[in-house]
């Protein structure tokens, strides 16, 4: 809890040695009225989950596997943008602690040297007109070495330690992330998505690039223009039309 300067985020921490998924525990806790800012963190996940129900590799003691329960005053349709708010907060915290320049690959990947270092999974509990809770799941590769990753991840995954050559203090990094996350969430609640969008576009490696967007039923190519107020990725297609993409896997060309 070094340097935690928040008013609510991370003020309650449930710490586990080993769990299936912190995300599942956080959902149950949120349903049981856990307070705004409650953090679930584990040393190891035996069934970590990624976006689109993919598995998420969560080696023991080396990464940050955590789920934060927040109860912001937002409308349910404003919840998906919390993935982008979180990405900006994480990049800022990494920058501050390590001086590394991480970039954001839309929607939820944080990249270093072209490899994935962090993934974010944002899930919502809501009434039709009101957010009850948002669960922000963050999986970060921190102190892994190349050998800690399963073979299929070796070409595409990296860790902070691999990028800096140094062991990273995970507690410090968590505190930094929570500080920025609380700050930026408040900014989003008060001033809308405009200021976050600007920050996001500054850190993005996607805006301006030629990309292929692989969706469930189709694949399209175009130039990424930026993100919309709703957090959609805007692509200019070759016929000149502009299309907003809600969810896809992005391949940078
Ligand atoms: C992705 O890039 O697909 C998102 C990965 C999110 C992983 C984190 S680790 C902590 C939390 N618990 C989970 O089971 N998943 C998220």
UniProtKB/TrEMBL annotation:
EC class (word): ligase
Domain BPL/LPL catalytic: 1-189
GO BP of this protein: protein lipoylation; regulation of DNA-templated transcription
Transmembrane segments: none
Keyword RNA-binding: no
Domain of life: Bacteria
Reaction(s) this enzyme catalyzes, per UniProt: biotin + L-lysyl-[protein] + ATP = N(6)-biotinyl-L-lysyl-[protein] + AMP + diphosphate + H(+)
GO MF annotations in UniProt: ATP binding; biotin--[biotin carboxyl-carrier protein] ligase activity; DNA binding; transferase activity
GO cellular component, one term: cytoplasm
Record keywords: ATP-binding, Biotin, DNA-binding, Ligase, Nucleotide-binding, Repressor, Transcription, Transcription regulation
Binding positions (biotin): 45, 116
Keyword hit for Transferase: no
EC number: 6.3.4.15
Record function comment: Acts both as a biotin--[acetyl-CoA-carboxylase] ligase and a repressor.
Similarity-based family: Belongs to the biotin--protein ligase family.
Protein name in UniProt: Bifunctional ligase/repressor BirA
Organism encoding this protein: Sporosarcina luteola
